[in-house]
Automatic annotation (TrEMBL):
Residues 1-39 are annotated as: Disordered. This is YqkK. It comes from Bacillus inaquosorum KCTC 13429. It comes from the Bacteria. Residues 1-12 have a biased composition (Basic residues).
């Protein structure tokens, strides 16, 4: 693979007596960056921020009674 322009500049500075800029970089983070998971479909559907208030299929309608007219 080819070297990036920034890496070439860093190596040039080191060869010509400059300071090592890699020493000023921070260490590894205190949290793991490899164990993150995306939300499941169920978690996305249960999110309440953009839920439609007029969607009546989202809850149970068993106790709801609509009288019908007798013919």
């Amino acid at each position: 693979m080819a070297k990036s322009r920034a890496k070439k500049k860093r190596e040039h500075l080191l060869r010509n007596g400059g300071r090592d800029v890699l020493l000023s970089r921070g260490g590894a983070p205190s949290f793991s960056t490899h164990e993150r998971m995306t939300k499941s479909k169920k978690e996305i559907l249960n999110k309440k921020k953009h839920r439609n208030p007029y969607d009546h299929t989202a809850f149970d309608d068993k106790d709801f009674f609509v009288p019908t007219k007798a013919a």
